[in-house]
């Protein structure tokens, strides 16, 4: 009597991207921001354990209003969306590291502007370029020089006697 051989069927499941996103990196001073714009078709996007609704901005898993606490910075971080009339069209997540809050804000704006370019380059590029959001600000902290008094540009120290 022949033995029944059980056939093992290997199911190959194709990994389908649940949500497509536009990725960009922005930099300012010592800060780096990695931005993801999700065109949330159904209204919300789940990224890891975080659920982001359309129109919300999350930075380092915290709402942007909570991350950038100052009144001035609250107005500034949405500026690329306001100038391109895309406020509320995307769910935004960002990983920001390095530098201080002002540098991180500049890096965030630079990254968001670059991500918006991937959506519609011909339409958004002149608008964002005119506002200066696409320009990488080259100004960096000047290094401390040896022999100078505790700073980069102080007078050279010398003993009196």
UniProtKB/TrEMBL annotation:
<keyword id="KW-0687">Ribonucleoprotein</keyword>
<dbReference type="GO" id="GO:0003735">
    <property type="term" value="F:structural constituent of ribosome"/>
</dbReference>
<dbReference type="InterPro" id="IPR020574">
    <property type="entry name" value="Ribosomal_uS9_CS"/>
</dbReference>
<feature type="region of interest" description="Disordered">
    <location>
        <begin position="135"/>
        <end position="161"/>
    </location>
</feature>
<dbReference type="GO" id="GO:0003723">
    <property type="term" value="F:RNA binding"/>
</dbReference>
<dbReference type="GO" id="GO:0022627">
    <property type="term" value="C:cytosolic small ribosomal subunit"/>
</dbReference>
<dbReference type="Pfam" id="PF00380">
    <property type="entry name" value="Ribosomal_S9"/>
</dbReference>
<dbReference type="GO" id="GO:0006412">
    <property type="term" value="P:translation"/>
</dbReference>
<comment type="similarity">
    <text>Belongs to the universal ribosomal protein uS9 family.</text>
</comment>
<keyword id="KW-0689">Ribosomal protein</keyword>
<protein>
    <recommendedName>
        <fullName>30S ribosomal protein S9</fullName>
    </recommendedName>
</protein>
<dbReference type="InterPro" id="IPR014721">
    <property type="entry name" value="Ribsml_uS5_D2-typ_fold_subgr"/>
</dbReference>
<dbReference type="InterPro" id="IPR000754">
    <property type="entry name" value="Ribosomal_uS9"/>
</dbReference>
<dbReference type="InterPro" id="IPR020568">
    <property type="entry name" value="Ribosomal_Su5_D2-typ_SF"/>
</dbReference>
<dbReference type="InterPro" id="IPR023035">
    <property type="entry name" value="Ribosomal_uS9_bac/plastid"/>
</dbReference>
